[in-house]
Q: What sequence folds into this?
């Protein structure tokens, strides 16, 4: 016959899941991805001051996690100008090694002529600012 009380028998069983949850939570507490726009290629025909309808945005992607590689499914990248949606594209799935950085390109092909014309006109006054949204 066991001399353990009901309270004592439950203590060790409760301890294991708590430790396991703490370990799992601790191993993934690092940020998943860090994105920043690194390069932008919007070709400009200098003689006509016209912007090409084919744009490329290069994102510096960093996996600061020192414990795990990270896999990304397809991501949707959207551009906004003056708060208005311009266009979007998909970026193929990719894998990012632990504690690494890489350059990821998003290509916007055949941007609508009215958008290109609007930005071309505004670019004559100087810098053009756009917002980028990455969802995935």
A:
């Amino acid at each position: 016959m066991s001399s353990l009380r009901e309270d004592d028998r439950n203590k060790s069983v409760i301890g294991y899941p708590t430790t396991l949850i703490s370990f799992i939570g601790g191993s993934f507490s690092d940020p998943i991805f860090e994105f920043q726009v690194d390069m932008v290629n919007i070709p400009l025909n200098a003689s006509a001051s016209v912007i090409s309808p084919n744009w490329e945005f290069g994102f510096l992607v960093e996996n600061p996690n020192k414990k795990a590689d990270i896999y990304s499914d397809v991501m949707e990248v959207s551009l906004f100008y003056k708060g208005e949606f311009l266009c979007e594209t998909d970026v193929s799935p990719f894998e990012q090694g632990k504690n690494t950085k890489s350059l990821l390109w998003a290509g916007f092909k055949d941007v609508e002529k009215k958008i290109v014309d609007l930005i071309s006109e505004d670019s004559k006054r100087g810098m053009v600012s756009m917002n980028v949204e990455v969802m995935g």
Notes: The mean pLDDT is 75. Strands lie at 34-41, 44-45, 50-51, 55-63, 70-72, 75-81, 84-91, 94-96, 100-108, 130-135.
